[in-house]
Amino acid sequence: MSKYSKIDRDERTDVMNEDCSKFIEELTSITDEAKQSEKFQEWLETKSKFHDYSWQNTLLICMQKPDAKRVAGYQQWQKKFDRHVKKGEDAIWILAPQKAPRCPACSIFKNSHDTEECPYFDKDDDSYPVLESEDDINWEYFVYGFRPVSVFDVSQTEGEPLPELDHDAKPDDRDGKELMEKAKEVAEEFGIDFEYKSPEEWNKSSKGYAIDRKARTLKREPAATAKTAVHEIGHILAGHTENNKIIETEDKRSEKEVVAESIAYIVGKNLGLDVSNSKFYLAAWEGDEETFKDKMQEISNTSKQILEKIEEKL
To answer: CB 217: neighbour CB atoms within 10 A?
Structure first.
């Protein structure tokens, strides 16, 4: 199944290290290519139509619907995506900022600005000496409060499909079933509580998750399932799930996903899986060259750690 089984044990580590470095360099190239593809641009266009939410609202969404993937307002689903909220769905409530324009010179709101003292305004002349008119003021929008508004997750809607990025291993790859079994054994040897879940048992929008020392993966085609399993094991071994938090910055999350998917790519590629579609996943998480370089040692060490355990079992 793997070329390393045929290499002398004394030389195996050096060869693995060389291959890991080579595959990391390759990842930077295919990720850049993916970003230029028509498929990726289409996905970006759709993603740009969704609002970015504050960490407070992300927390509110998570509390009400933990498996939410993409949320938008009732009208936004209809007008921008040609999708409709299904009858009987419960809304997810978030807090929307209320804004009003105010003058940068005196901080007076626009609706009462002409009757207040302001460095821009001369009451004696009833004019704006330094400006041609009030319209030339560069009004600043100030958040003066918040109001509850309702949004709905994509799973609560139906209609035109949203473009997705396929990052799974190909379902017809050989030995995927065996790798599934070995990945689970390896996880347990590392002290990870690991399980594959059937589609009937699965209630997440993602295909796998890891929390503390526990990982779960949706069972589907063997090769794709095995690759996701390695991704989640990689998260844990790289220390991403220690003191797990519900909310973290997008940059931090992106960095962790780049590392975990790079680990899955390297392990899968070493063991004969077609993992070329990882490039879309990594491109979506801003898998730029600098991120790979900064994390190269972490990716390489964790990949080798998993590979060595799998090799022992093969």
So the answer is: 29
Residue 160 gets which letter from DSSP? Answer: S
Q: Give the residue ranges of DSSP H helices in 37-150.
A: 38-47, 55-64, 74-81
Burial state string for 301-313 with b = 16 or more CB within 10 A and e = fewer than 16: ebbbbbbebbbee
Mean pLDDT, rounded, of the chain: 81
Yes or no: say if 141 and 100 are a contact pair by the CB < 8 Å rule: yes
Q: Is the distance from CB of 162 to CB of 81 less than 8 angstroms?
A: yes
Task: Judge whether 247 and 209 are in contact, CB under 8 Å.
Answer: no
- E strand spans, 67-128: 71-72, 83-85, 92-102
Phi (first) and psi of residue 274, to 5 degrees: -85, 105
For 11-70, the pLDDT digits (tens) are 777 777 777 777 777 777 778 888 888 888 887 778 777 777 777 888 888 888 878 888
User: Is 306:233 a contact under the CB 8 Å cutoff?
Assistant: yes
Distance, in Å, from the CA atom of 191 to the CA atom of 314, rounded to the nearest integer, reads: 20
